[in-house]
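Hi R.,

As promised on Friday, here is the backbone we talked about, encoded as structure tokens. Could you run it through your design pipeline when you get a chance and send me back a sequence?
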């Protein structure tokens, strides 16, 4: 029984006792006598006294209930203060613990890299919250949206740097595998610290053009050069995703394409080629490049942006953007290679258990 109700019952019992006592006195006064004016006055006084006592008791009950409410409020405030102090202590420890931030960054980068090579900020925010909830439940309970936002802002720069490093590592492995597979007799080496003139000279070498044209030719056992290259890059994986296949092939294509200037591939150009390759994989089409496909992808993106701009403004604004020319050369007339979508360990669309990425809605 609640404390307030128990106290109210006690006071009610006391009032009942006082009223009963007053009634007995009245009856004793009446015995053997007739009603008289003095008796009526006495009874009225008794009733007035009882009413006054009742009002006083009710006032005491109300005051006591108010006191109880204030005490409960103070106790709740005290518990809330203790909880906040604990949260502050925990979050301060997190903010001052570089190992925690490093652990979160590594987990987020590893998880998201399995499914998304170029994640958006929202992807990174969602994955960061997921990692904390799953791996640090005690900390997650003490964090609200503001804490998550502050933590992400603090780790964002290092997280992006980590992802760039992971992409750069794969790109370096693809380029190294290209030189290993073709050999120096078919493809001359190039120092990545070479001058622009030396890089342009290397790109103009006919052997580079021949290597570019042979990427989708058969190397051995019905496996193309590019398949063998990707197997070297991801040799520790039994299966890799279609997205990573599209990415690895795009690096090889743009690195050897004589019409793509330089050997450091821009992110925008790489994204376009990945998009083209991934679409072909989904449609089970060969990945051999088609003439003008990069130009077509660039034009398609420009039209989409202009359509969006039309929806925002009554006037259509056009932007001038440079186009990357396609090779303008027909594929090599040699042996017809099987499409990269033929059965092989590189082709399943999703990772195996070791590398399976968390699927997003």
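Update: got your reply. Pasting your designed sequence below so it's all in one thread:
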């Amino acid at each position: 029984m609640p404390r307030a109700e128990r106290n109210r019952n006690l006071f009610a019992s006391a009032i009942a006792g006082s009223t009963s006592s007053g009634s007995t006195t009245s009856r004793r006064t009446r015995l053997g006598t007739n009603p008289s004016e003095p008796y009526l006055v006495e009874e009225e006084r008794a009733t007035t006294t009882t009413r006054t006592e009742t009002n006083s008791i009710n006032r005491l009950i109300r005051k006591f209930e108010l006191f109880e409410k204030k005490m409960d409020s103070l106790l709740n405030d005290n518990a809330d203060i203790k909880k906040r102090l604990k949260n502050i202590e925990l979050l301060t420890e997190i903010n001052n613990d570089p190992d925690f931030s490093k652990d979160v960054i590594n987990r987020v980068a590893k998880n998201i890299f399995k499914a998304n090579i170029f994640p958006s900020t929202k992807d990174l925010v969602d994955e960061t919250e997921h990692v904390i909830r799953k791996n640090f439940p005690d900390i997650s309970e003490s964090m609200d949206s503001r804490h998550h936002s502050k933590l992400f802002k603090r780790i964002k720069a290092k997280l992006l740097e980590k992802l760039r490093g992971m992409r750069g590592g794969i790109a370096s492995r693809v380029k190294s595998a290209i030189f290993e597979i073709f050999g120096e007799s078919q493809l001359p080496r190039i120092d990545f610290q070479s001058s622009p003139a030396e890089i342009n000279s290397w790109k103009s070498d006919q052997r580079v053009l021949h290597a570019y044209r042979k990427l989708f030719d058969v190397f051995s056992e019905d496996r193309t050069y590019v398949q063998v290259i990707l197997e070297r890059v991801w040799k520790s994986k039994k299966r890799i995703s279609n997205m990573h296949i599209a990415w690895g092939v795009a690096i090889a294509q743009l690195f050897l394409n004589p019409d793509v200037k330089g050997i450091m591939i821009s992110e925008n150009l790489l994204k376009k080629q990945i998009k083209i390759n991934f679409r072909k994989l989904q449609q089970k089409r060969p990945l051999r490049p088609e003439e003008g496909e990069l130009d077509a992808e660039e034009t398609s993106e420009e039209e989409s942006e202009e359509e969006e701009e039309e929806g925002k403004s009554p006037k259509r604004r056009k932007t001038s953007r440079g186009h990357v020319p396609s090779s303008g050369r027909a594929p090599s007339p040699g042996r017809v290679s099987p499409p990269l979508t033929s059965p092989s360990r590189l082709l399943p669309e999703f990772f195996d258990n070791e590398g399976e990425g968390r699927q997003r809605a």
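One thing I noticed while checking it: Residues 19-32, 299-361 have pLDDT under 50 and may be disordered.

Thanks again,
M.
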